[in-house]
Specification:
Shape: globular
CATH topology: Rossmann fold
InterPro entries: Glc/Gal-6P_isomerase, GlcN6P_deaminase-like, NagB/RpiA_transferase-like
Protein name: 6-phosphogluconolactonase
Number of domains: 1
Radius of gyration: 17 Å
Helix content: 25-40%
Strand content: 15-25%
Order of helices and strands: EHEHEEHEHEEHEHEHE
Strand order of the largest sheet: 1-10-9-6-2-3-5
Structural class: alpha/beta
Pfam family, one: Glucosamine_iso
């Protein structure tokens, strides 16, 4: 695990963007990248999109979402893909042929299809205050899980319900690449900012590997880079 401390969000955005650019350009053949939605990577995508758009050097890059919250509305694209399109895929002008949507219809074949496509070269991950990553929340998946459907009832359904204005559109499950699937990616880049992420980063870096903190398994990956600002890194010893 490599830990990189940065002074602020601007530095994190630029460094992460340049790291992704370098990784994408390290191959001339197909490059498979899975990226995260959410607030943390917003600045990364603002830095990255204009450098990717209309640049044929990146035409070999294919994009994957690693989780999805569907809807009872069959015309709804999905929360994650909706956000990824808004944050990055549309601003970067990514051809739809290079966007591979993980859905409730194809999740059972996702790992096999990824293998046939050469596997994931890299994943850009965020981390939740509770130590979750992708859709691997505490108590929802096991370390041996590949891509799975996670049942959402009670508090979990309320949690995903915040993404919908109409409660009738909230599904009773979500889809996620499980820990085993994530660990199969060749390179992991995890970013975090703010004091609210400090405990989660401590568990990732210095804590034991335990299901209570799902991201703790990531420290066992052979190529994990953690990029954090000073606030998020305030509890770790590195």
């Amino acid at each position: 695990m490599k830990i990189i401390r940065v002074a602020n969000k601007k530095e994190l955005n630029e460094l992460t963007g340049e790291m992704l650019i370098g990784s994408m350009l390290s191959k001339q053949t197909r490059y498979n990248l899975s990226i995260t939605a959410g607030n943390t990577p917003k600045g990364v995508y603002e830095y990255l999109a204009p450098r990717i758009k209309r640049n044929s050097a990146f035409d070999h890059v294919h994009y994957y979402n690693f989780d999805e919250i569907p809807s009872t509305d069959p015309n709804f694209i999905g929360v994650t893909m909706r956000d990824l399109k808004k944050l990055y895929l549309d601003p970067a002008g990514i051809d739809s042929k290079r966007i591979h949507h993980l859905t409730s219809e194809n999740f059972e074949n996702h790992d096999h299809n990824l293998l046939l496509a050469g596997g994931l070269d890299a994943m850009l991950l965020g981390i939740g205050k509770d130590g979750h990553y992708c859709g691997n929340l505490p108590g929802t998946t096991n370390f041996a899980d590949q891509t799975v459907k996670v049942e959402a009832k009670g508090a979990l359904k309320d949690l995903i319900g915040r993404h919908f204005s109409d409660p009738l559109l909230v599904p009773d499950y979500w889809i996620t690449m499980g820990p085993k699937s994530v660990m199969n990616a060749r390179k992991l880049i995890l970013i975090a900012t703010g004091t609210e992420k400090a405990d989660a980063i401590w568990h990732l870096v210095d804590g034991p590997v335990e299901n209570k903190y799902p991201s703790s398994i990531l420290k066992l990956h052979p190529d994990l880079t953690v990029i954090v600002d000073e606030e998020a890194a305030e509890r770790i010893n590195n």
